[in-house]
Task: structure prediction
Amino acid sequence: MASYALKRMFLMIPTFIGVTLIGFLIMRLAPGDPAELRAAGGLGGASGAGVSLEKRGAVDEAVAQWRAQYGLDRPVQVQYALWLKNLFTLNFGESFKDNQSVWNKIVERVPVTVKLNLLSLMVVYLVAIPLGMYSATHPNSLGDQVTTLAAFVLFAVPLVWAATMAIVFICGGDFYYLFPPAGLASLDYADDWPLWRKFKDQAWHVFLPVLLMSYDGFAGLSRYMRASMLEVLSQDFVQVARAKGLEERLVIFKHVLRNSLIPQVTMLASILPGLLGGSVIIETIFSIPGLGQLGYESVLARDYPTVMALFTVSAVLTLIGILISDLLLSVVDPRIAFGRRLQ
Amino acid sequence: MSSTPLNTAQPASGNAAAVENAPPSGEGLWASVWKQFKRKPVALAGFYLVCFLAFMAVFGDFLANDKPYYLSYKGKSYFPVFRGYLVDARLTQWPAELLNVEYKKLDGATAIFPPIPYRPTNIDLFAPYETPSKDHWFGTDTLGRDIMAGMIHGARISLSIGFVAVGIAVVIGVILGAIAGYFGSWVDLVISRLFEVMLAIPTFFLLITVAAIFPPSIFLTMAIIGSTSWVGIARFTRNEFLRIRNLDYVTSAIALGVPDRTVMFKHILPNALAPVIVSVVLGIAGAILVESALSFLGIGVPAELVTWGSILHEASGATFAWWLAVFPGAAIFITVLSYYLVGEGLREVLDPRLRGLR
Result:
């Protein structure tokens, strides 16, 4: 098990290098000199625009200095090597926008995004597994047809539409004020509130973003769950279990459920990157100060060090998602750890 | 490890079985697919919706235009909508009396206008945020632009991005998948690594990065969506090639000395396409979704272009104007849903494993 995990991690190194290399090359291909941009404080900065002529010389000097400092005057492959070297000390450089350490900026925002994504992931699995189980154990019943149809339709609902409709109709516009339109806590949120009040306030704020981030996940996953459970139900060992007089409840929960969960475990790897992409949209719409919002703002300001760092962080998270789902898979299905290639 | 969502069962050998099931009359695979597809009312409804949207996209200029079909002015007859095409193709020019005129305000003219007498770019600063009415079916936005016109012309942008992006994805995916599956061994290993890299890339983040750092352009948007979404297609193609490559007819073709390229693209590819086709249809829906998300975030497509996503974006800043949120979102939803329905129907027809279940 441990050696399998090590092997998988080792195999991820070339993938990681490939991913970051692609990201790095794209940032370098972008029009505009990073050093000049930094001098201007990114695109969003105001300092570069109004520089008077006599100060221009000083700016040029600073630009040249930065260029040397960050190795921007060297060939691309050397720059990439330098970037990789800095990565080992978690040094992502400084933001063009405010000269703060990129790493600190990211660390500040990680908890918010991780919280949202973990909650969404929980909702996805908690809704999808029972729904799929119900559908598969009552195939072609009215309930099955309704949930299948609902999942299918829900899966086609664009996230941007669902979020905008929520903002317009139930977040205190001209219609209803059921949920807050922005933020993760009320403005008067205080640490001396009683625990239940804090919890209620946070839950109220987090409800819509989490629901919006998870609905297409549970719509898709419930259909996978139904399909995989139907497949297991049709296998001989289920017949045997029933033939020997085992209670149907035990057949389902003890024999069928475990086997039909195996494919759902691998879905983690494909849900996780989707959630991260979704947090860009959701965090932007609901003004939630997480990684997604930081990413969107940095991208608009062409704050390359921050963008590159976020790109790396989300690539690492995706790789970890793949790794976890591979490892979980080898736990639930021990045949896999014995050298069989995953498909 | 990850696959297109909704593909509950992976089509493995759809084509071979479909060929076996084909009637002996010698009718082709696609004729038989269509015959079975026709019997699925829901999938067929999706197909007609797709056709309807394609109609809107192609004939958008005739449905929503500030130029009349027919104009009689100062004793002369004109057909400005049609003439517009000729002018765009630089075959002719506007006559002096029609240059930059407002057709609705011409004195003593008789004109027949399209059902929506606006273009999505017609700004009317005296009519901002009009609620839906007879004049503006779906209301207007902050600049008084007609939303219905924006919706119709948005269909064109949305569908063309969907088709071109997926076209790019198909070319990359099929070529790479074919090479990997056909040559196997180390070639397969290298290309499969590349698949893994592409799967680990945070696609949406890459998309917004590229879309934001380069000047906005519809072609760039197509290109980046296409070049980040080919992995699914490539994997399907690879698996099909791996399977078909060992069939006797391929072996005999190789033994006969047929060049690799001919074997790959003339003999194997037609038989490998059936499972790919489903992911192509779903891919179009995916590309349309991504495009709407990009223009919602205000990146990718130039600001002056009105798209479904850009109207939605306006809605998030003007929450009282519910019509800005309802209609364009519903358009994206219906489009995506109809592609899903078609894809699902096709998969049921092409995947023999599902045939017994229904």
Summary: Chain A touches chain B through 67 residues (CB under 8 Å). DSSP finds twelve helices and no strands in chain A. Residues 195-233 of chain A form the longest helix (39 residues). The two ends of chain A are 19 Å apart (CA to CA).
